[in-house]
Amino acid sequence: SEAKVGEQQQIQNKKLSQPAIFIPVDRSPEIQEARLKLPVLAEEQVIMEAVRENPCVVICGETGSGKTTQVPQFLYEAGYASGIIGITEPRRVAAVSMSHRVAKEMNLSTRVVSYQIRYEGNVTDETKIKFMTDGVLLKEIQKDFLLQRYSVIIIDEAHERSVYTDILIGLLSRIVPLRNKKGMPMKLLVMSATLRVEDFTDNQKLFRTPPPVIKVDARQFPVTIHFNKRTPLEDYTGEAFHKTCKIHRMLPPGGILVFLTGQAEVHSLCRRLRKAFPFRKDEEADTSEAMRKFKKAKQKKTSLPRIDLDNYSALPVDEGDEDREAGIGDEDDEGSDLDIGDDPEEKADPSIPLYVLPLYSLLAPEQQAKVFRPSPPGTRLCVVATNVAETSLTIPGIKYVVDCGRVKKRFYDRVTGVSSFKVTWTSQASANQRAGRAGRTEPGHCYRLYSSAVFGDFSLFSEAEITRRPVEDLVLQMKDLNIDKVVNFPFPTPPSAEALVAAEQLLVSLGALKEPPRTGRVKEMEQARLSCPITPLGRAMASFPVAPRYAKMLALGKQQDCLPYVISVVAAMTVREIFVDLDRPAGSEDESSKLTQRRARLTQMRRLWAGQGASLLLGDLMVMLGAVGACEFAGCTPKFCEENGLRYKAMVEIRRLRGQLTNAVNAVCPEVGAFVDPKMAPPTEHQVVCLRQIVLAGLGDHLARRVQAEDILDPKWKNGYKTPLMDDPVFIHPTSALFKTLPEFVVYQEIMETTKMYMRGVSAVEAEWVPELLPQYCHFGPPLESPQPWFCSSSGTVRCHRSSTFFRVGWQLPAVEM
Ligand code: ADP
Ligand code: MG
C-alpha cells in the first residue's frame, strides 16, 4: 500500500505540474459537429497527456486529419496560452488561411488568433495563437533566443523538410531544455503528414531522449489509381486539360483537383477550362444566392456602373497578382508563359458548369479562401493547384485528382552560385500524398498523367531541401542568427562537412565573416576557422535574396550612384543565359551562310554594347548591361530580342528581378530610395571604374592573371590565364568583349569547359585594387619565407597569405604604399 501512496503522490504531483486554468471555448454547433468528425479529436487525450509529460512531442497524421486547425485549440483550452502558442508553416498561404480558420472555429477575433508573414500580419498584444512562416520565427530567435513570449512552439509540415524548418527544429532542440532549466517551461510539438520522422526522433544530436510519436489514424477511403499509357514529355498542361474535360463530361459528381507546378501553368489551365465550360446566360438567371451576392459586391466596388456585354461567366476571373511580395525563389515564381491555344473539339456543350478556381502560394488570401466555400449549386468544383494543395491545405469535396507528376524545385549551380527553378519529377511519397487528396470523404480516383513505369523510377521520398541548397547562403543566414559553429549545429539532415568548410572560407574571403587569427596553436586555429562570427557587411549581405558573391555587390552598390547598374548586372548574371547561342551548327549550306551573316551582325552588336575605352574594360558585364539597357529602351519586345540575339524570356526575367532586388535594397537601406528606371542612361566612365571594383569585390575568388610572354615555357599557355585553383590555363572566349584586349588581370563569373577551359562573364580589373578590396587574400608586412605567396610585390609589402591553394601562383603585384 506504500507503493500505492507513492503512486497517488505522483499523480498528485503530475496534477500540480499541469496548467491549472482550463479556458472554455465557445464554438458554434456546426463547427463543433465538423470538429467531431476529425480523426485528431479522438487523440486529444493522448496528445495532451504526452505534451504534459514531455518537453517535445511528434504528431503524425494524414493531411486533413485536423492537426493544424485542432492541436493549437487543444493547447489553448488546456491552459497552455500563458504565453503565445506559435505555429510555423513553410508556406505563407497556409499561415494566413489557418489563422483565419482557427479564429472562426474558436469564435475569437483575429486580434487573438493572428498571423505574421514576411511583410504583413495582424498580431496584437492580445494574440494568443500565432500562425507564422518559419522564416518569421527564425528572425525572432535572432532577437530573443529564448523566445520568452512563447509558451508553446508547433512546427507544422515538418515532412516538407524546408531548410528553415530543419534549422528551427535544430535550434528548438536547444532552446526548450534551456527554457525548462531556467524555470520558464516551454513545449515543442513537431507535426508531420508522413510517418517518416526518424530524422527527428532517432537523432542523438537532436534529442537525447527520443520524443514520443503519436499517430493519428485518419479514415482514408480507397483511391483507384489510373496511370496513363504514355507519358507526355512536354505539354502536360494540355494533357491535364483533356483529362479534366473527360472527367467532367463522363464521370459522376465530385470535385476535381489538378496538380501543376507553377502559377503561370495554373492560370493558363484555368483560362482554358473556363473557356471550354462557361456559365450560360440561362443558368445565370437562376444562380445561387452566393453568386448574386458576389455580383452585387462587385458592382459596389467599381465606382462607375458599367455593363460588360461579353461577360458570360458571372464568377470572378482570378488573375492573382503575380508580383505580390515575391521573394526571389518562391516556388511559384516564374516568368509568364504563353497561353495555350484552345482545342475546338473540347468545346462540347456540357450539362453542368465547371467552377474553376486557382490555388497557389502567392494567391491573395480572399481568392484562396474560396476553395473552402461550397461551390455554387449545380456546378462542379475544379481546383487547379500547385504543390500547396498536396499537404498544406485540405480542399473539401475532392473525388478526382489529376496529377502531372512534376514539381518545381530550386536547384543550385555550384559553379555559378546561381539558384534556379526547374520542373522535375516528384517522388513516390509525394505522388501518393496527391492521390490521397481524392479519398477524404468517399472513395475516389487519381489520374496520373504518366505511366506506371515512370512512377517506378521516381525516388521514394523527396530529399531534404538542405542537401540541395547553396550552403554559403545557408551558412551566412545562420551566422546572421549568431550561430557561429555551424559545423556543430544539430541539423536533422546535415550538409557535408566539406561543403560547410568551403562555405565558411568563401564567406571570410568576401568579408562577410570575421577573419580567424593567423597565428596560434594549430588546433585552436582550426577551431577558430570553423566558427567565424558575422561582420556588419555580412549582415547586410544576409538580407539580399541572392548568392553571397552577388549580395556583396549589391551591398556595395549604393556608392557613386552605381546601384541601378549593379542591380541590373546582378540580375543579368543570375539569369542563366541571356544571349542566344551563336555557336549553334547550321543545318544546310544555305542556312550556314545566313548564320554566318547573323553571327557577324550579333557579334558586332555585342561589341557596340561593350563600348570603347573605359566601358570596354567592364567587358562581358558591360555587354550584359548594354543589352539590358538597349532592350528596355526598345520596350523589351520579343521582336527586339529576336533581332539582337537576346533570349526574350531571360530579358523578362531580368526586368522582374530588377524590381525585386530594388525592393530588397530599399528595405535594408531606405535612404537610398532606389527605383527601377527602365530607360537608365549608360554609366559614366567614372561609374564604370566603380562597377569594375564592385565586381572585383564580389568575384574576388575568381581572379585570373594572364601569363606573361617571358614566363611561357609550354606553348599551351599562350594567351592563357592562371587561376589560383587550377593547374591548367584558362582562356577568354572568342565571343567575349575582351577577347582582343587580353587584360592582365580579370575576374570571371564561371569557367566552362568546351574545347578549352573558357572563362565566361569576364571583366578587367586593376592589380592595385586587390589589396584594398580583397585584403583577406593579401598579407601585409615583411616577406614570408614559405610557402610562396600568391601575390608578391616587388617591394615585399603586399602578399597573399590565405588559403594554401593561393600560394602556388606567385603573381606579381605593383608595390602599394600602405
Ligand atoms: P491537417 O493539418 O491534419 O492536414 P487541417 O487541420 O488543415 O488538417 O484540416 C482539418 C479540416 O479542416 C479539413 O477537413 C479541412 O478541409 C478543414 N478546413 C481547413 N481550413 C478550412 C477553411 N478555411 N474552411 C473550411 N474548412 C477548412
Ligand atoms: Mg496541416
From TrEMBL:
Describe the location of the Helicase C-terminal domain by residue ranges. 232-482
Q: Where is this region: Disordered?
A: 313-345
Q: Where is the composition biased (Acidic residues)?
A: 318-345
For this protein, the Enzyme Commission number is 3.6.4.13
Instruction: Reply yes or no: does the keyword Hydrolase apply.
Output: yes
Which GO biological process categories is it annotated with?
maturation of SSU-rRNA from tricistronic rRNA transcript (SSU-rRNA, 5.8S rRNA, LSU-rRNA)
Q: Which reaction does it catalyse?
A: ATP + H2O = ADP + phosphate + H(+)
The entry's cellular-component GO terms read: nucleolus
Write down the superkingdom of origin.
Eukaryota
Keywords attached to this entry = ATP-binding, Helicase, Hydrolase, Nucleotide-binding
Annotated Helicase ATP-binding domain ranges read 48-213
Q: Which GO terms describe its molecular function?
A: ATP binding; hydrolase activity; RNA binding; RNA helicase activity
Q: Does Repeat appear among the keywords?
A: no
Member of which family? Belongs to the DEAD box helicase family. DEAH subfamily.
Q: What is the designated name of this protein?
A: Activating signal cointegrator 1 complex subunit 3
**Protein species of origin:** Lates calcarifer
